[in-house]
Amino acid sequence: MPDRDTPTADAWEPLRSELAADLRRVADRLRSMSQTRLEAQVVPPEHGMPPWGSRAAAARGVATLMSDVASALEAAAAGGGYPGYRPLPELSVHATGDQVAVAGHDLQAALDLVGPDDPAWFGPYDRRPARGGVQPAVRVLADVRRQL
Q1: Is the pLDDT of residue 135 over 70?
Q2: DSSP of the chain, one letter per residue?
Q3: Is 98 exposed, middle or buried (0-12, 13-18, 19+ CB in 10 A)?
Q4: What is the C-alpha to C-alpha distance for residues 99 and 60, in angstroms, rounded to an integer?
Q5: For residue 53, what are the CA distances in angstroms to 16, 57, 134?
Q6: 93 within 8 A of 39, measured Cβ to Cβ
Q7: Mean pLDDT over all residues of the chain?
Q8: CB 20 within 8 A of CB 141
Q9: What's the pLDDT tens digit per position in 93-134?
């Protein structure tokens, strides 16, 4: 694991910047939407991305994914294995922007705990470098941004 006190280039760049920019855009956009727009169906996702249904469902899905990845990184930093996952509570559609923001901030904080090449468990049989779990989460967030 790299020494976090050494002033070097951030090993997570440009992924960290992409995550931060899309996180702000998605959370702000969701917070400004009416209930009707949040509950409206979204266009089918890009190839390989999960189908969402409504904008609120897409927000909950990406918030859950970011929360799961953050948990995996935190467990890896603590020397643990697969952390198991807890579903996020299903709150009002108006809370989805806040859920995305909180889960995204948790993921951003977890990036400081491990390096991109540090191994992490993203499922009971899915051990890979940390970047292998973070990159898909960032791609899904970008897909949700495009669908809003």
Answers
A1: yes
A2: ---TTS----TTTTHHHHHHHHHHHHHHHHHT--HHHHHSB-PPPPTTSPP-SBHHHHHHHHHHHHHHHHHHHHHHHTT-------PPP---GGGHHHHHHHHHHHHHHHHTTS-TTSEEEEETTEEEETHHHHHHHHHHHHHHHHH-
A3: middle
A4: 7
A5: 28, 6, 23
A6: yes
A7: 90
A8: no
A9: 999 999 999 999 999 999 999 999 999 999 999 999 999 999
Predicted pLDDT at 47? 67
- Tokens coding 134: 């973070």
Distance CA(5)–CA(63), nearest Å, equals: 30
Token pair recorded at residue 124: 């009971």
pLDDT tens across 4-40, in order? 444 446 999 999 999 999 999 999 999 999 999 999 9
Q: Which residue has the tokens 């959370």?
A: 27
